[in-house]
Amino acid sequence: MASSDWLDVAGWSEAFSGWSMDNVHNILPSSDIDMQVTIPNTWAWQEPITLGPIFNMQSGFASIQPALESFMHATIMCTVVFTTMMLTMLAIPYIERKFIGRLMDRLGATTALRSLWVGESGVTAGEWWNQLPFGMGAPIGWVVKALNSKWGNSHELETIARVNNRSYHGYWFLLPGFFQAFADFMKFATKEHIVPKNADKVVFEVAPVIIIATTIMVFAFIPFGPHIYAANPELSLLFMMAIFGIAPLGVFFAGWASNNKYTLIGGMRSAAQLTAYEIPLLITVLGVAVLSGSFNIIEIVDFQMGQDQGNVWNIFLMPLGALLFLVTMIAEVERIPFDMPEAEAELVEGWWTEYGGIRWGLMFAAEYMRSYAACILFALFFLGGWEAPFQHTLSDLPAVGGVFTTVFLLTPGMIWVLLKAWLLFAVFVWIRASLHRVRTDQILEFGWRYLLPLSMLNLVIAVFLRLQFWTGEPWELWVPAAVTLVSGGLFVILAIDEDKEALEIQRRPYSTQAVVKASPGSHRE
Amino acid sequence: MADEGQNYSVFNSRMLVDVVGDVTDEALKASRMKDIIGVLAGRMFNWGQRKSLFPLHLGIKCCALEMAAAGASRFDAERFGVFFRSSPRQCDVMLVNGPISKKFADPIVRLWEQMPEPKWCIAMGECAISGGPYFQSYNILEGVDTVIPVDVYIPGCPPRPEALIDGFDKLRQKIIRIGAAPGDSMPASTSPLILGDE
Amino acid sequence: MAEMWISMGPQHPMTHGLWTLKIKVDGETVVDTEPDLGYIHRGVEKICEARDFTQITTYCDRLCYASANTWSHAYIYAAEDLLEVEVPERAEYIRLVAVELQRIASHLMWLGAYGPDIGNLSVMVWCLREREMMMDLLQELGGSRMHYNFPRIGGVKRDLPHGFAQRARAKLKLFLNRIQEYEALFDESTVFLLRSQGIGYAKPEEMINHGVSGPNLRAGGVNYDIRWAHPYSVYSELDWVPPVERSSIKGADCYDRYRVRVEEMRVSASLVLQALDKMPGGAETYHEPGDPMILAKAPTRAPEGTTGAHHFEDSRGESMFYIAGGGEGRGKQPYRVSIRSPMFITIPYAAKCMIGYKVADIPAIMGSFDPCIGETDR
Amino acid sequence: MGKIVSPEFQKAAAEVLAVAASVIEGVDAEVAERSSGTSPRHVVVINALPDSWRNLAENLYSEHAVDYCSMVTGIHWPEGDEERKWEVVYHLMRTGVRDPPIEDGIVRPIIVDPSKLRGASIPLEIEIHVHIPDTTTPSVDSVQDIWIGADWNEKETWDLVGIDFDGHQGMRRVLQPHETPKGYHPLQKQHHLRYHGFEEMYDDVQGFKRKPADVGKIK
Predict the structure, then answer these.
(1) B15 touches chain A (CB under 8 A)
(2) In this structure, are A366 and A443 located in the same domain?
(3) CA distance B124 to chain C (A)
(4) Do residue D38 and residue C244 have CB atoms under 8 angstroms apart?
(5) Nearest to B79 by CA among A120, A101, A432
């Protein structure tokens, strides 16, 4: 029995289109009409259509009513999904701007209540908890001081209170900085459109279309909730992964078409990078499909929800797959550790140096959409889609169980999907703030040498788990616990790549194996 | 509109777009909706342009460090939508922050022409305004406005980051006054408009 | 793929400043490079021939704008050599504090610019945040944020302001434990080690013959430093060792140059703290500007035929001024001022170091040599 | 360890070098005592004739391990006496920098203790003046192949002052725009700065028609 919740948009739109079509059918005249009507041929259809001497409007309409109904249902669902995606996507640049602002400790309006900045000449607005009414904040102050003195550093400049000269921008009381992405987009719309003189005009125009179209098509197959999806074919996973992989080709065309040496190198890098991460990505997704037993994304999430008896999320069954999916998705959407195609340092702006105005704005938005799609997919595949965390354990609690069940009934599934996706995007931004950019030949080697075998291993684990331990009803408790513990232990052991012997000789804390192979300088002598 | 005997039997998307465009335009003009939309859209796009001024990542000399300091965390210019881009195609403001030597004269003009139309130029620092301490030098142009039209002058050697952010504020006031549509950025009168003292 | 020339043009995120690096590229491997400087050549040497000796310090501040104090002090030492002036002991200590604070600020500017070169943006914002602290201290000394015009021929403009020593100690203490944050972001990130180890090799003997000096040379494992080789100021009274990096066999690579500069920041911080303790007359006492403790009387005219030259350890290498006296105004203006810029010599060498590496390594190698184009083009 | 090179040993080493350099004909060297604010500095100042400069350079590089060319300066003395119309000043240094030794695959960095340096390993500062008599095409032998560091210095000196260097490969303009006219070398004394000797530039400083108090005094 598939999971369901009250926000049954698919059902409503089906009912609505059925009801409206029936009304149209009833309004039409039901009596027979005996008149010969021929409709001449035009570009749309070749030979003229002649309606027979006696025909009945209602029966004619009845024959095409199911097609109209499904067409109306599909349009409603597409608009609903697209509007939810576009509206909730405004949160993505906001998360990026605020979280990276916080990581970079910017003075700008950050969501944080504390900033490491001291105002001019040490003036601060005092601790934020002192500004709570009726002195309610005092206990927080004591706790903070106790913690600071015990574990924190007591350096007086370090524990710096919030800056007082905080100048917001825009409607300060309402999420400062939220409409910045909106303003950027409107400005892109009013920019002049420049096509370089000897650029390849046709490909220059077509490349952004490829990128933007494929990005939006990906959202056709991504369900936001049990009943909120634009299309739900049997093999939605295959469709979606296929479409996801086309955009880097558009990047390559854009790079080639702008007739600029930087963009040419950027485009070549994107094509080369494609070969490095595409195969591991597909094998990881295959692992998920094998474990969940179906290629339909909604069924994958249902498998994780376990038809209301509570089942284990895939992240605990194959943490290796989750890690691989995260790494390959970052490479797919070309974010910081793997964003060589648009590396500012050496390629000015990479493949989109020659694009400006609305084309660049749309591609900029498309890049955010692809990251958003990657986050939602991670949430659906590994974090149990629209199932609230601990949904079944909480609702089975003896005393408080009832409260939780009503809460989970009231909140639609979409809320959980979006929260998980935004949390994932915060992880993307965190990775962007802390890692450097990898070279193209290093990601190619990393992809073939590490990602590919690991994704194979992950597939083997998924098949083994599915065949050996899957008995129809939910997993026994020890299976996910064992897998997670083993994987966590292995990760910690393997992550320590400090080479003690190299450390004390050459004072280089790390012997990164790749240096010997990937370093080009060694061949110079 | 019919060029070289276009036969209308074959469906032609360009013709459809033109026809629909003209018809709606006439209708809106007749019903005076065009002015309302014009005002609304004008103000909205003006707000959009004002709130996201992307300067070009062009560092010439000392003022480049003050530009970087303005972009960094203490004088965060990113709160005002100032986000440094490296390609001239994606920028609206060219922030000239150093002396323009003869060798750099035509590259900077080429950069200026590569920028899409509603573009402005901020001359930051004495060297960009009038050649600064090097006005006597054999290799320095006396100010950027010898080669490209300048909208806002920020005096100082180097001007403090607060002055740079105030310069962007002056540019925003100018955008409010002159409008952000392409071609508006160069008003007919070329005499510099002194803001704030009228 | 056919080889093609790419000109990383005057405006390019990799070039910290305005210069063009033409690279011949075969696929992604660099086959040949050719730097093209002179985009901000302002003829400072010609202008200095029409300025008095005190007016020239403002031009020397603006030579290398990331480390203004080191350059104005380099000029002042050469001018004092020309005019034979004895500098009071306390003035030398104050100068040392100003120069070493400026060296920290200059290295922070380099580290901030090096992060985005390899792809990490948050390093730039952190380093500039720390640099603001150093600039606050220097602003108390010199008066403005970046160009201080602080030294005078024969001493310094003014004494340390009240409470400067206490603020300097607090900020340097906070800075020393902030450096660990940067090292965590650089040293413990395998991606950075992948991008910087084994790239841009340079052997010390080759570097010396090419005229490269300073941190780039010390990264090769040799502790040659102008501050002890041709001693000036009061470095002999303080206890310090120029930091040296144990480079790899094939020579100093980008990782070594990064390590040397981070160590140098720590050494400079300890130098400032020691100078504040050992300052004759104590760091807390305040002398009026022009007081003989901080400023000696200096002649303003240099007769014909006298010359002055002085080497100076700038944060990027060995900077030097050679001044021939006897210009117009009966010797009030110099006849010829010649400026040695360390980066004018290092950039062509760095361009040669890039041959054989990938396009993505160019910013890593060029950034690790810390180019500052203001001093290169003079 | 922060000790410095002791001035006496540096003076002794400078004497040794000065004596050795004066042996070469056409060259006279002496040790000049200069001060750097606190500690005295001993500089070997050598006056060389243009034709004996090349073998002096080779001699310094080979026998005296002068391995570092700091700066090349060209000066134009139009009203100087007959044989001193042009002058090239070389600043060389003996640094004693060698590649750190490699013992069984590990590089041992060289940590020099300056106070223990003796004799030939003391770093020295050498200043060489080469005077060129009055000619329209001043030229000196190039040392590009001895110290590669002098390569771009010589290009810059030719570019700005106009002193040519015989045997210099790839002489081109480095600082000036590529299309500057052939004979234009700005640092020669016949070229003047803009507004040189102009009076009215200072008359109306901000264009408010007010005369500054110090009219007539050219800054």
Answers:
(1) no
(2) yes
(3) 15
(4) no
(5) A101
